[in-house]
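FW: tagging you since you asked about this chain on Friday. Here's the raw sequence from the shared folder, copied in full. Didn't touch anything.
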Amino acid sequence: MKATDRHITCIDCGKEFVGHYNKKRCSSCCKEHSRKKQREYALKYYYQDREAHLIRHREWLRKNKEHCAMYSVEYRKKRAKENPNWRKEMPSQHPDRVRAWSKKYYEEHKEDYARRDKESRQRNPERGAIRASKRRALRASAVLPTTDYNLINKMFKRSVVMSERDGVKYDVDHIIPLSKGGAHHQDNLRIVKASENKRKSASIIPALGGVWADNDLAKQTKLKLGI
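HL: got it, structure written out here
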């Protein structure tokens, strides 16, 4: 213990330590206080000329790619060791930040999204029909607990294969239309030629069978038909 050292109580955490009589904080609190001051200064400096700061920051990242990559790997390892599920928990812990980031990223990459979406539709023409059908079904509350989306997706894919094979367009048709209370269910779907589907339109053909949804629209239609 030096002549200038004293027993001091830290003004932040209240812990007693031995140090120079001018010191007010223990080493841990001193480091944290210093970091806090640095952050405050950095934020003040950042907002004075945000655009210039971003340009310099991007340039620094470009020149230090390897360092940043190594730091990211080490950081992820450290967080995973502390909490194996931290990546899964992040979105639920910070939903506003995730939404804001996703919106910003989408706005900055709209053209890339549109291009990839177009390429995806060309490679998998059935996907658009699957998504549209699912949206309509959810809107109409026509999905049943036993609805199997894997089987439904296979039907849409099969319709595309049949269209390419025969040179005639095939559709996946709801036997009992969603607009009349039909269910979005594999047993209420059939693959038919587009021309036949157009002729049938939104009519109900009892001989074809089908499955009803569990909603008010289905109850009203069955009441009208006397079922």
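FW: The two ends are 96 Å apart (CA to CA).
HL: agreed, and The chain has ten helices and four strands.
FW: great, closing this out.
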